[in-house]
Amino acid sequence: MQDKLDNHIEELLPEFQKQMDIARPCVVLDTLTALRRLFRGTPSDIDGQAEFHKEANCNIIVDILIKAVNSSNNKIAIQGLNDIGCFINTLSDCNGKILPQFAKLCEPFYASVNSKLNNGLLPQDIKQKAIIAAAILI
User: What is the pLDDT of residue 3?
Assistant: First the structure.
């Protein structure tokens, strides 16, 4: 299943990106779940060689995940934070170190996660997911 999804990722990502702007929350959550499954299904030994690791695809994924984290919908923000962790894991080597070719992709995540950590008005569950995402980024 993973290889079949990965082979069509260039067709899927623009559609996923559109859903982030126009869809109802349940569709956005389904989109984020599909991305998370893609990330989790990626073998840990492929060292950034999946189709979604191509620069253009990564940029779309970053945009999707930043929109999710910055969402005013708490469920979407939580799912976005979860997906950031899964995505970063696919950009890392088997020791958990982010591969050099992907280091720049992580920069936008720092700002979004940090804004969640510094917002004292957010629910505890968002803060907890932001702490986990920050730990994975570090």
Answer: 58
Return phi, psi of residue 92, to 5°: -110, 155
Helix, strand, coil percentages (3-state) for the chain, rounded to 5, are 75, 0, 25
* Residue whose pair of structure tokens reads 């899964």 in the numeric block: 86
DSSP string computed for 46-80: STT-SGGGSHHHHHHHHHHHHHHHT-SSHHHHHHH
54's tokens: 């191509």
Phi/psi at 23 (5° precision):
-85, 160
What Cα–Cα distance (Å) separates residue 114 from each residue in 6, 79, 105, 132? Answer: 30, 16, 16, 12
Pick the closest to residue 122 from 82, 77, 62, 86 (CA basis).
77
All structural domains of the chain: 2-137 (1.25.10.10)
Q: What is the pTM of this model?
A: 0.85
Residue 29 in tokens: 């959550």
Asked if residues 91 and 50 have their Cβ atoms less than 8 Å apart, the reply is no
Asked if pLDDT for residue 110 goes beyond 60, the answer is yes
